[in-house]
Amino acid sequence: ALEAFQLSLGRQQDLTLPLPLKGIVAKRGQEIFLDNQLGKCNLCHVNAGATANFGTGNLGNANFNTGVETLPDQPADLSGEKNPPDDGFGRPGDGTFNTPPLVEAADTGPFFHNNAIETIEGAVAFYDGESFNNSVSGKLLAQADPNGVGIKLDSTQIVAVAAFLRVLNALENIRQTLELLELTVKKGFAERAEDRDLLKRAVSEIEDSIKVLDGGGLHPEALAHLEKAKELAEKAGCSFFWRSSLTQQAIDALLKARVQLIEVS
To answer: Within 13 Å of residue 119, how many CA atoms lie on the same side as its CB?
Structure first.
């Protein structure tokens, strides 16, 4: 029963990249993400998911040693308290950790199993550093690279990949919010308590979308529509007679926000 409940949540299928994004920085970030000679992100996160594929077939949701535990100056280490390393899966641990999906990564910081990195930009930059490139996984990528390079990105490329992940996150927030609001409209007046709960969850999703875009200085036009959608959804949660109308207006504002992020057919 728990498994069935968890499988019913969130996305029901993986994305298919590339997406027709509008923002030039996020669009470039997507190109880097999908470039197996540059960003190499898609090798372990196919379509920004948790599936690995190194060109030899689907490896599923695999575990990798990425060197996170060797990061210098981790906050927990700086505290002066004893901080034993987390050695991952196995008995004894093998230093590997499970690959997470990235579609909603931008609003789930701090990052990695030990919360070592605070921002999505910092998380992307990790893969350009020595800890990753000297790890088992980094060396594996270097061996497969014609130039013997693991991952080497410039600072602007790191920001671009992070911008792509921020926009991807916002698009998923919008998708989930629309699903919640459309369900509210269908329910009508009869189930007020459930409607209010759906609207509360919708507001939370909108807040996440605002946070991830604003944090990267992305798409101010979309942000304006998202702020309006949040305001309308909050009003709908406090209204009885105008709830359906306000909810529909919030849906319209979300659709306007989405159009700013991606080409919609």
So the answer is: 14
Which structure tokens are listed for 171? 């698009």
Q: Which two tokens stand for residue 206?
A: 């909108």
| Share in percent of the chain as helix, strand, coil (round to 5) | 55, 5, 40
In this prediction, residues 36-55 reach a mean pLDDT of 95
Output the pLDDT for position 190: 53
Which amino acid, residue 159? V
Instruction: Using DSSP, state whether 98 is helix, strand or coil.
Output: strand
Angle between helices 192-215 and 155-187 in degrees, nearest 10: 170
Q: Could you tell me which of 24, 12, 16, 14 has the C-alpha nearest to residue 261?
A: 24
- What is the pLDDT confidence band of residue 188, given thresholds at 50, 70 and 90? low
Residues 222, 260 contacting (CB under 8 angstroms): yes
Which 3-state string (H, E, C) describes 9-55?
CCCCCCCCCCCCECCHHHHHHHHHHHCCCCCCHHHHCHHHCCCEECC
The pLDDT value given to residue 104: 95
The string of pLDDT tens digits covering residues 67-111 is: 999 999 988 889 888 888 888 888 888 999 999 999 999 999 999
Global pTM? Answer: 0.94
Closest CA to 258 of 229, 234, 217: 229
